[in-house]
Structures are given as structure tokens and as C-alpha cells.
């Protein structure tokens, strides 16, 4: 029966009668909260449980993919260059380099240029300049550096892709076009070196800023974390995102977590060189605070981004499957959603901060004995890094195969 549009509702009820009607009318929040269903219940538990677990798993796997790439730069690339030099010394004739070898040479030039320039940087001067700023200014400085870090991270990936493409063209070029490809390779290399150097200085400044907050005794670290993380939530959660945007955003968080690890390594190296008294416990506590806050903010951010944009937790499992395929070099339909990470700038920063630590343990005289210890420490470091690289690479590939097989079995059962 249709409602009468001319029906009137009595308003001259007594207060007692009105209250009693409210008592027996139903849910006390019925006027502002609608009755839920199973779908709403599923959304609640997706936000609380299912999505945080899958998101954190994806970010952690992405972190280890970045670490594997970083270790490849410090172990595989030097080994290949040594093999190129050995081949030249053995045959006494120049052989046309392959695209992989040209790419390694380009990365080596960028890495050495950045590391050499960072060695000339006076960290103490920058540290005291930053330390003289107030807590609010530290927050502003760190956020500005973080913005430029993300910009150069994206730009650096494009630059290295361009350099590798030119290396491919130079390796396959004919005699007539070799000069053109050489000029193009040199130009791309200059751009890559410049981008890597600028990005290295940005990361070094970020590391110094974080170190300043950690060693301060005025709760500057907590102020920085709260303000920075709140700004991150505010700038991301209430925006509209597509599934591809969320995919790339998770990868940015993986790279950011790797950069934070490099910053904490910088703080550890500075403490080894300069700290007095018991400092290791305080360092571990501060590092734990940084990691836990970063993990918590990432979980909150992605949970509510997924909630507001109707993205199911299964999407993060699909992202992880794509990352596993990337780990195994399996071509996917959308290459743009691959994790892009250029470890040149973090490597320059790590080399810059670890060199004084190694130098402090070297004898000054005599020179042959000093050279022997340099060779010994370099060899030991290389062996340890190479061993870690092999273990991480094997672990990532085993996990990738297992996860892809698991996803395929699940799809077969669902069909």
C-alpha cells in the first residue's frame, strides 16, 4: 500500500510518551547508523586483520628484493668488471662489449662518482647546521628531503632504463652507427651520474637529519615521527586511488623502508666512531621505534586506502604474485607495475659512512702492512656480502616459486 503524501505526523506528543516510543522503537542509533550486513562485517575484518597481514608481507618481500639488488651492485657488478679486465689482459685485444657489460660500466662510473664526491662532504658541518635548527624546522627539512627523494627515485629509474636501452643499442650497433651510439651513451651516462649524485646527497642529508633527531635529548625523534607519519596518512588516505596506484604505492613503501635501514646504518656507523659510554641499547631502542612506527603507519595507511577505494585484500596477494614473477624474471602483462629500485644512491651513502669505520681499524705504519689489512678487510667484506647476496637470492626465488605455485593451485580450485 502506497503512503499518502498528504499524511501528517503528530508533533504534540508529551515528553514521556516521546521518550517511551524511543525506548521501544529499535536501535538507539538507527537514525545515524544503518543496519549492516555480511558484506559490511567482511569489510571490518578485512581492514583489521586480512589486509594488514598481506600488505606487510608484500612490503617485506619488496624490501628483500631491494636488498638483493643493492648487494648485486656491490658484489656481482665488481666481479663482472674484474672479469672484463682479466679478459682484456689475457687476450691483449679489445672485444666489443655486450649490453650487460656496458650497463655495468655505466653503473660503476655513477657509483664511483657519487662515492668520491660524498667522501669530500663534511658530515660534521652538515650535522651541526641541522642540529642548530628547531624541532619544527627538522620536521620541515626531513619532509622536503623525503619529497625530493621520491622525485629522484622515480626520475632515477627512468634515467637508468634509458641508459640500459642505449647500452643495448650500442652493443648491437653496426660500424656505421657506432659513433652515434657512443655519443648517446656518454650523454645518458652523464645524466645518470648527475642524477645519482644529487640523489646521494639527498639521502645523506636525510640520514644526518634522522641521526640528529635520534641523538637529541628533547624528544625530537618522537616529534619527527609523529608529524611525518601523520602528514603521510593525511596526504594519502583520503584520496581516490586505482588498483595500479595502490600497487605502486606499496612498492614506494618497500623502497622507503630500505632507505630507512640505510639511514639507521649511518647512525650506527656514527655511533661507532664518535659515541662515548653505553650507546648500543639506546640505538636499538630508537631503531625499534622507527621501524615499528613505520610499519604501523604503513598498515593504517593501506588498510584505509583499501577501505575507501573498495580494494579487496586479495589484490595485495595479486601484487605479491606479480613481484614473485618479477623475481623469477617472468614477463607480466603490465611491466609498469614492476618494482623499480636504483641502489646507486643508497650504495654511495653506505660506502661513505662505512669507509671511516674500516679506516679506524687500519694500522698507520708501515705502508705494506696497511695495504695488507686493506686487502684483507676488503676481501672479507666482499665474501660476506656475496654470501648474503646468494642466500637472499636463493630465498627469494624459492619463495617466489612456492607462492606462484600456490596461487595457481588456488585458481584451479576456484575454477
Automatic annotation (TrEMBL):
Chief site of localization: membrane
Residue ranges that the Swiss-Prot or TrEMBL entry lists as coiled coil: none
GO cellular component: endoplasmic reticulum membrane
Topology within the bilayer: Multi-pass membrane protein
Domain of life: Eukaryota
Pfam families: DUF747 (PF05346)
UniProt keyword annotation of Membrane present: yes
Transmembrane portions of the chain: 57-86, 371-396
Keywords: Membrane, Transmembrane, Transmembrane helix
Subcellular location: Membrane
Family named by the database record: Belongs to the TAPT1 family.
Protein name in UniProt: Uncharacterized protein
